[in-house]
Write a structure and sequence with these properties.
By secondary structure, the chain is mainly alpha-helical. Helix content is 70%, strand content 7%. The protein has helices at residues 3-10, 14-47, 55-64, 71-76, 82-94, 116-140, 144-166; strands spanning 69-70, 98-102, 110-114. Strands 1-3-2 form a 3-stranded antiparallel sheet. The chain is globular.
Amino acid sequence: MSSTQARREIQPPVEKVELKSLYLETLQLVERLHRRLLDVIKDEFDRNGRTDINAVQALLLFNIGDAVLTAGELRSRGFYLGSNVSYNLKKLVELGFIDHQKSRVDRRAVRVSLTKAGREVAEIVAELYDRHIGSIDKVGGLDEGEFQKMNKSLQRLDRFWNDSIMYRL
C-alpha cells in the first residue's frame, strides 16, 4: 500500500470533518454564552450600583428562587460545580442573602433558602430576563420557534453527554 493510500484511509470522511467543526463551534459557543450571561448580569448590577454581590452569586440566588435546597441538589440540578457552590453559598450566608439550616433528616446536610435580601437580588435578575423577553424577538431576531429548536438541540446534547458518562461512549 502506498503512503497516499494510507493517508486517505486514515482521514475521516468529509461529513465527519464538517460535523467535528460544527461540534467544536457549538462547544465554544456554549462556553462563551455562559460567560456572556455573567457579563450581562454583572452589567445590570453595576447599573444599579450594586457591588455587594457578583454575577455568579446573583445567578445562584435566582436559580434557588423560592426553593429550599441542599448544595448537592443544586449540583444535581446542573446549576453549579461542587467547590463553586460551597464557596458561594458560604459567602452568600455571610453576606445575609441566604439562610441555612441543618436538615432534620440528615444532620450533615444543610438546607438553604433566600432571605429577603436574597429575594431582592433574584428579582433584579428576573426583571433583567423579563426586559430581554420584551425585546429579544425584535432586536435579537429570536422568536419562540427559534428557542424551541435551540432548547431541543441543547437537551439532546445534554442527554448525549449524560449517556457518554453513564455508558462510557
